[in-house]
Model the fold of this input.
Amino acid sequence: MYDVIIVGAGPGGSVCGKTAAEAGLKALILERGSYPGAKNASGCALSPKLWRDFEFMKDLDVPSQRTCRIHTSHFVDENLREEFAFSQTPSKRLNTYKEAKEFFTVNLYRSEFDPWLAKLAEEAGAELQTSTTVVDLSRNDKGKVDGVITDKDERIKGKIIIGADGAWSIVAKRAGIRAKWQKDEVTLVVSYDFKCESKQLVDDIIGDNAIHTWLGGGFPGAYQFFKADGFHLGLGDWLSNWDKNPRTHLETALKVEGVRKLIKLTKAKFREFHAHLLPWLKYPGKTYTDNVMLIGDAAGFPCPLEAEGIWYAMYSGQIAAQIAKKAIDANDTSKVFLKQYEDAWKESEIGVEFEAGPELQEFWANLPFAPQNMAWFSQLMNDNYAIFTTGEAHITYFRRFQELLIDQAEVIAPFVIRYMLPLFGKAFKQPLSDMKTVQQMMKQFTKPKKKKK
Ligand SMILES: Cc1cc2nc3c(=O)[nH]c(=O)nc-3n(C[C@H](O)[C@H](O)[C@H](O)COP(=O)(O)OP(=O)(O)OC[C@H]3O[C@@H](n4cnc5c(N)ncnc54)[C@H](O)[C@@H]3O)c2cc1C
Done:
């Protein structure tokens, strides 16, 4: 009998197994892939939060990693030509710890990261069994979950089962926590993986400018993450939003002039196509029941703005293992006891992130993922910078831009009122109804213009 059986050796499962084993629990991790990471999205970007919260991250050293210090956002027009772009580096004033001041992400392949993490869990004492798919949960004579059933018809008993089995979570379904995601709760992410000619060439051309996002152009925002000697070009949207085959949009993104240039410069060759589901919720649903807890994607934890999910999986995995230890020590694994897990993640930074879940998600869905809005937004950003160009007197540009803002108010103001003010309301902890001054100001803009005599 295991204290905890963890289904899935993704980042969440491995950190959960490591934490549980370190706490002295008998932990088993079951993974359907022939090795951890074999079945996962092949490339990803790890946020600095991992280095802040997990001491072991300082030892990460895998061949594919590339640190991203500069992120460039490209806005493209309907002809897929660049209209406006900006680059950013980590804010030295808003960030509070060293790594966040130094880099945005470390990009790497999951086929290297997941085995590295799983090995740490094994070294801590957790057992890892690969090529094993959990197909059901077993129940005792009182109807309570008491173990898992695998595709080899093994019945393995455990006091607590942790669903770390990602977006499709069989544990969530069989435990009766969730039937399936609604179409507006889950995204389909498609990506092309490219291999560049050499690491040296990527060093020379890209260096640490290792994330490029491509916005506008009629497709939902696409991202390009450069690893040591390769990159991913990917995009996603909620299942409820796809108007055509997502791969068609990815093909369009591939035709963007800037993307083609980077492919040419890095001498990149197409390697693989991937399609994965990724939960993207306004707020996570239930995450526990008797003898069961869900972590990471299985729980719906990817962040509501950009669906970053790896830190959320690892952090929730750590919390779940800590609560499992308490439950086993107290000899009480009932849902009444395990509610402490939900209380704990709500109090953690995961809960803080979801304080503005609906507002963050609405904002993202209606800007980067809404090409029709990106079209005016991109043009407006570009017009703004016309102030610094030399075609006419600078003050003339200033005046024209002011006139343009008033002229475009009917497009801009509804967007600001619907999607930006609610976000500001949450940020300033002030309900929208108290922000009357700003609302009135915006309404002024939307008033029909008086006709010139
Ligand atoms: C294309 C794409 C790109 C992404 N990029 C980023 C990124 O750059 N940065 C970021 O932070 N997040 C990113 N995410 C989100 C991130 O991948 C997930 O949030 C994260 O992997 C969740 O970790 P997890 O451990 O909960 O689940 P997963 O990583 O999905 O791991 C689940 C594991 O469970 C195994 N499994 C599933 N079912 C069973 C079963 N029945 N029996 C046994 N084993 C099972 C799977 O094989 C897998 O190994 C991306 C997602 C996608 C789809």
The chain has a mean pLDDT of 93. The pocket of flavin-adenine dinucleotide is lined by residues 7-13, 30-33, 36, 39-41, 44-45, 133-134, 164-166, 170, 189, 191, 234, 276, 278, 296-298, 302, 308-310, 313 (CB under 6 Å). Residues 310-329 form the longest helix (20 residues). The two ends are 87 Å apart (CA to CA).
